[in-house]
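User: hey, got a sec? need NUDIX family hydrolase, putative folded
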Amino acid sequence: MPAKTGDRSKVKPAIPRPSSSVVLISPKNEVLLLHRVKTSTSFASAHVFPGGNLSAQDGECPAAEDPKRHEDAPCYRNAAVRELFEESGILLARDQSTGAMLAVSEEDREKGRREIHQNKTTFAAWLKKHKAAAVPDIDPLIPFSRWITPTNVPKRYSTQMYLYFLPLPAESNTSLIDEIPGPGEREEIQVPTGDGGVEVTEAMFLPAAEWLRRAQSGEIIMFPPQFLLLHLVSQFLDKEPRATPSLNELTQRRAQLVEFAHSGSPPWTEKCISPKMLKMSSDGRTVLALDHPGPELKGTNRAGEPDRVVYVQFKKGTARKLEVRWKKDVFAEQQMSNL
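Assistant: Yep! Here you go:
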């Protein structure tokens, strides 16, 4: 019997499109976010990590019905580095023969971004044109959770998040670091498309704590995945003192964040999160549970984050009033209110 008009319970959920994003950490332990334009087809007007959908040039991805489609793989890593380059102009590539990071002039990078985005060449081919032994620098990428869009959303994604640490000043190739925006500096970004439109208006490095403050004050729009990951990053990279920490302190904070990424049950490197409404809070915000991995992974041992929840107010396609809390505290408050 055909489903009745308006009976959404019978509508088959959209297949999640594979995508990647990078939580890029600067030499000063700040985080890069991009401001998407209001006409964007996803996360319009929001601040997001660099990233996007996988393409054929990134390598073969498992079939839609294969649970391995939702695991870290070279295709996701290649897409993460390629999309970062297309969207921000920051190039993560290495000379395989020497191990040195590849430094390309701003003029050549801008030309390359346009050519790759317009499918005039592939990222790999463009790299080889500059140096025969050049390859995307995918090995340092650290998986930092995967997010699968809930089934009630028409456009769904299976997004592999990664951490990537740009070299600290003592380790840095000066020519590479000189190309990266400084703290709080804006880099105007125009990503070419088929019709000459603009997808990203600016890219900026700021401390994770400052991004969180701006989101909570309503200055910028941020969605739960970005907010939660910045919340976690901030706990390690924004410890006191925040002003001009020593090189040793910067190194220690990075090491603590990496250790955290490999901790938990499951560890954050393997968590797969498909947010699910848990309840409504007393102030009208939605409380999102993060422990469900999504229907695509039903029957597998994949799991999400069991201990935290995200409070959020969804309004007219935006997310406001975000907050990360412990799930146990939410239930404790509910029990107290029922007394």
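Quick note: The chain is about 25% helix and 25% strand. Let me know if you need anything else on NUDIX family hydrolase, putative.
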